[in-house]
Structure formats: C-alpha cells, structure tokens
C-alpha cells in the first residue's frame, strides 16, 4: 500500500512539473523573438448620427440641487428619515443624499425607484398600477421597484434620468418629495 501511495505521489509531482514546464515554455516562446509585437491601432469613429449616440445627462450641480430639494421637502413634511437618489437612465447614481436616521434599505429603494422611473419614463406610482398578480410582469425586472416614489426627468420629452425617494411611511409622500426635487431643476432650465 505504501509503494502505490508513493508511486501516485511521484506521478502527480511529475505531471505537475510537466504542466508547469509546458506553461513556462509557452510563455518564454515569445520572449526570445526579435519580431515586434502586433499592435492594433485604435479606430477613430467619426461622430455621425448613424455611428454615435449623443447622451443627455443631468449635470452634477443640478443633480445635487434636485436631491437637496427633495430631502428638504421631506424634512419640511416631518419625514427626515428618507434617502433620495438621482440616477441616469442606465441606473448609474448621479447624486444620493441620505437623511438623518434613514435606514439602510432606503438607499436601495431610492435608487431602484429612480431607475424604474428613468427606464420607463413614467412615475413609479403610475407603473405600479400596471403590475398585476397574474404571472411574470415588468415588476420582475432586476433592479426595478414598482412602488410610488420615483419620478422621471425628461429632456425634450425623452427620459434621461430619474429621482427616487425611499423611506416615507407612504409612497405618495416619497413621490411628493421626488417631484419637488424634479421641479427644483426643471425651473432652472427655463
């Protein structure tokens, strides 16, 4: 029994050395050559409507202004324990402001409501009415939350971002704060 265990160990060690040797040889095969490596140059794509998509985004200052205004509305309504998120239409956070004593779950709720509003171009309260309990629905899409509290931000009628609030005891309160944030920057462009 001891002989076979030693034989298996020796065979395994030999296989490991062969594998390591083959890897080293393959890696070293290019080290000694004098040929220059093949360099693929970057391609300069000409900006044209058929090749490049222009993207509108809410500016950093406006994003900060919107989340600040939304939180201020909630605080004025005696709801300081919310989180406000503003995301672009792809769900990337532009600005996030967590109110005093806001629970950790409010962060995700605010981001998901904002993304849902941005992605669908409608307030999440309206979208929630479209969800039914008869099998799979839009509510099953990852990263979305179909509860009131998300408002889309549009530029020339096209959804480019969303603002969401999470943490109020009622989604209508969340949505009122989100709407106040959206209105704070809508008037700035006029």
Strand ordering within the main sheet: 2-1-4-3
Radius of gyration: 28 Å
* CATH homology group of the domain at 60-189: Haem-degrading domain
Q: Helical amount among residues, as a percent range?
A: 40-55%
- How confident overall, as mean pLDDT? 84
Overall CATH architecture of the domain at 60-189: 2-Layer Sandwich
Q: How much strand? A: 5-15%
* Helix/strand class: alpha+beta
Terminal Cα span: 88 Å
Largest pleated sheet: 4 strands, antiparallel
- DSSP summary: helix tally: 5
InterPro entries: GlcG_carb_metab_protein, PduO/GlcC-like, PduO/GlcC-like_sf
Pfam families: HbpS-like
Signal peptide: 1-24
Keywords: Signal
Write a concise synopsis of the structure shown.
With 190 residues, this protein is of the alpha+beta class.
Q: What layout of secondary structure does this protein have?
A:
Layout: H1 2-28, H2 60-76, E1 83-88, E2 93-98, H3 105-120, H4 124-130, E3 150-155, E4 158-166, H5 171-186
